[in-house]
Amino acid sequence: MSTEDAELLTLAQELLGRVWREGRHEVASAVRTADGAVHTGVHLEGSCRRSSICAEGVALGAARGAYPGGRPLEVTAVVSVQIKPAGRFRVIAPCGVCRELISDYSPDATVWITTVEENEVVPVRALDLLPDKSRRAW
């Protein structure tokens, strides 16, 4: 993981460490845009599952809000963390909806995930998280 991406990991962990609450705020995400700016977000669990918002969506929304007008949102890297049992942070892959959202806005973004079989943190291109994804023309 590059120094820049390790910074995303640190920021996501720091955020989650400050706000974590079981069943309410269990995931934090940090994204870096092409200009080097970093934006973070935390998962918001609602009383009705449908009202919940993932940390990645919150971070992408914060990033989008930082760029006025028609300037495209260009995310270069995404790191999301969760606190697992024993209080250890773990890099997690985005859910299916967030995979769609990230790849819609920045298909070439690097998304850091933990592999299932090797339990290693590896980079994956956002669009590669959704094989055969249909793309809408914006």
From TrEMBL:
Keywords: Hydrolase, Metal-binding, Zinc
Any matching Pfam family: dCMP_cyt_deam_1
GO cellular component annotations of the record: cytosol
GO biological process, any: nucleobase-containing small molecule metabolic process
CMP/dCMP-type deaminase domain residues: 3-137
SUPFAM superfamilies: Cytidine deaminase-like
The keyword Metal-binding is assigned to this record: yes
Segments traversing the membrane: none
MF terms (GO), sorted A to Z: cytidine deaminase activity; identical protein binding; zinc ion binding
Similarity comment text for this entry: Belongs to the cytidine and deoxycytidylate deaminase family.
Protein's name according to its UniProt entry: Cytidine deaminase
Species: Streptomyces paludis
